[in-house]
Amino acid sequence: MSRLAVNLPGLKLKNPVMPASGTFGFGENPKYDLNKLGAIVVKTTTKEARVGNPNPKIALMDNGVLNAVGLQNPGLERVIAEKLPALKKAYPTLPIIGSVGGASEQDYLDVAQKLSASGLVSALELNISCPNVKEGGMAFGTVPEVAQQLTKAVKAVSSVPVYVKLSPNVTDICAIAKAVEAGGADGLTMINTLMGMHLDLRTRKSVLGNLTGGFSGHGILPIAIRMIYQVAHVTSLPIIGVGGIEKPQDVLEMFLAGASAVQVGSAHFDNPVICPQLVEQLPALMDELQIDSLEQLHQEVLEAFKNEN
Ligand SMILES: Cc1cc2nc3c(=O)[nH]c(=O)nc-3n(C[C@H](O)[C@H](O)[C@H](O)COP(=O)(O)O)c2cc1C
Q1: CA distances from 112 to 46, 106, 109, 202 (A)
Q2: Whole-angstrom Cα distance, residue 146 to residue 179?
């Protein structure tokens, strides 16, 4: 096995790097051969098409990105009929992770069932962490019992592994992680954006049409690391780490916190080829740090966590 390869439920990846949901569309108009990626996570899909929140939806800041896109997407029908088949046709061996959104439990179930039955995705990511929609989204990811129930229901209608994407906008991330593990999740993706706001001194108004948004980018890396580290100590679920990655060092730090794959989001705004660059740069850094393979590093990290207790 190659030194960058990683294995997670439903995902045999040649490297651990994938673009995060919402920051890479459905892989349209790529700037490089997407076969260089470990996998691709597509935009969160809802039952009906959504135009999203009022403009402006994105504010690029010095230290990160504030967004209130509001799950703008073409809707389940078009995603299954057009977006995913086009991606699959262009990249038949690239694992695709579908992202499931909804405003009610029934919405989530419809989207999860149809996406997994389409045969076009290797896994699902259950987005219970979007801070930018009024109903649903984060409301399902902040109360442990609700998160557990939704996970259980989605698992019952899904024929592929389900990764639950957690929100950092909670007081006890471990309680949510344990709840979705009890609900039968196959893995976790963490973290989504942190709720934030930016006011323009001249207009005296928010820079976003939605007023508040989700903050992401390099500044949230320590928060993601802390949460992944805590959760890796209380669940045995595989974790896909996301939040603030922009360098190969950040990828390995995610592994040290307990992750076994990573996603990259906001870094795309400055550098559209960030993912293949990370893949290219990882081996030299691993040489420097005497890391033979990522799988071995992950096993060593888990072993060290076990021996702490
Ligand atoms: C413009 C934008 C749109 C996003 N849309 C989604 C989305 O549709 N679904 C989702 O689960 N996360 C979405 N996210 C969150 C990212 O997938 C990721 O969890 C978050 O940005 C943290 O990673 P980063 O710091 O590398 O950006 C979005 C983030 C940004 C910046």
Answers
A1: 10, 10, 5, 44
A2: 9
Superfamily name and number for 6-52+70-194+218-308? Aldolase class I (3.20.20.70)
Closest-lying ligand 1 atom to the alpha carbon of residue 73: 8
> Is any ligand 1 atom within 6 A of the Cβ of residue 46?
no
Contacts of 29 (CB under 8 A, 6+ apart): none
Summarize pLDDT for 200-234 with one digit per residue, the tens: 999 999 999 999 999 999 999 999 999 999 999 99
DSSP code of residue 206: B
Q: What are the residue ranges spanned by the domains of the chain?
A: 6-52+70-194+218-308
- Length of the chain as a residue count: 309
Atom 12, ligand 1: which residue's CA is nearest?
21
User: Cβ(220) to ligand 1 under 6 A?
Assistant: yes
pLDDT of residue 136: 61
**Does 174 qualify as catalytic in the annotation?**
no
CA 111 to ligand 1 centroid distance, Å = 19
